[in-house]
Amino acid sequence: MSRMFNPPHPGESIREDILPALGLSVTEAARQLGVSRVTLSRLIHGQSGVSAEMACRLEAWLGGPEQGPSAESWLEMQASYDLWRARQKPAPTVVRAPLPA
C-alpha cells in the first residue's frame, strides 16, 4: 500500500458522501446501523475510529462488498488515517533490537 498524504478520516466519507447520497440524517442512519446517534456522530466527526464491529455494520448497511465498501476497506481506511496521524508526531525514541548473528 502506498503512503497517502493526509488521508481522510473514514467518518468524513460517511458524513460528506454517503449520508447526503442516501438523503439520511445522522439519527436515521444510526437507527439503521443499530448504534446510538452519539456513536455515529462521534465517528463522522472524527472523534472515534471505525472498529471491526462498525466496519461489519457499515458493510451490511451499504449492501455488502458486492455493492459498497467491504468491512476490510473500512478498516484499511482507518488504519491509513491512524498511521498517517502517528507519523505526524515526532519519532519515538527506541532502541533497535539486536540482529541475530
Automatic annotation (TrEMBL):
Alphabetized SUPFAM superfamilies for the sequence: lambda repressor-like DNA-binding domains (SSF47413)
InterPro entries: Cro/C1-type_HTH, Lambda_DNA-bd_dom_sf, Toxin_antidote_HigA
Lineage top rank: taxon: Bacteria
Domain HTH cro/C1-type, residue spans: 21-58
Signal peptide: none
DNA-binding in keyword set: yes
Gene Ontology terms, MF aspect: DNA binding
CDD domains for this protein: HTH_XRE (cd00093)
PROSITE patterns for the chain: HTH_CROC1
Keywords: DNA-binding
Name under which the protein is recorded: HigA family addiction module antidote protein
Organism: Marinihelvus fidelis
